[in-house]
Amino acid sequence: MNYTMKSLGSLAVGVLFCYCTSKSSEQATTYTKIDSLTETYLLLKDSMLNTWNRMMYDDNLRIKAMKAIIHELKVTGKFDQEVLNTLDYRIDQLVRIRYTPKTMMNTDVVEEYDFASNSLVAEIIAITESYPAYSYNSVLQELLETVRKTDQRIETHRTDYDAAARAYNQFIDENKLHVHEIDQNATLEKKPLFYADSE
């Protein structure tokens, strides 16, 4: 009799232990999945932000170099000051019309900025290289090289940003049911790209 009661007691404890272990395992599995998704989500957001910041850094560096070139050309006294003042004003306008992660949803905003900045880069390169003393003016040469290099890097940053944004968009598509568990303020809106995917 005692043996049977002990056996039943052991069995009950064993079943209860298995049940509790099973529940804990399920909770741990659920937690691990959300935790993993949260980590991926945050990494994707960080990747986009870091790439964007590098792009803005180089864009600001390009603008700063163009401003410095105009200053150097004014000092020479060899150019029409009105022409240089107009270029200076147009450079200042670049920051005002520059796209943001939200406004670039409107492709016209990016196209307007690109047209304005590309025109300025081309005109500033042309006017600087037309200066007779350019070939031995190391300051102008270095500034112009900065404009060229940052111009090239900005294109690379855009490609990198698009890669991060595509990964983010795919993540949102695949985890719609869990997005608000990960981030209550998140939306299901996809991030716009600089270069549209070909259909």
Structure description:
- This protein has helices at residues 2-76, 81-97, 107-129, 138-174, 179-182.
- With 199 residues, the protein is mainly α.
- It contains five helices and no strands.
Overall average pLDDT: 85
Helix content: over 70%
- Radius of gyration over C-alpha positions, nearest whole angstrom: 30 Å
Q: Assembly type of the shown chains?
A: single chain
Large-scale geometry: elongated
Order of helices and strands: HHHHH
Care to count the β-strands? Answer: 0
What class would the helix/strand composition place it in?
mainly alpha
**Terminal Cα span:** 77 Å
Please indicate the percent range of residues in DSSP E strands (runs of 2 or more): under 5%
Main beta sheet: none
* Count of runs of 4 or more consecutive helical residues: 5
Keywords:
mainly alpha, about 200 residues, 5 helices, disordered N terminus
Q: How would you briefly describe this protein structure?
A:
78% of the residues lie in helices and 0% in strands. The chain contains five helices and no strands.
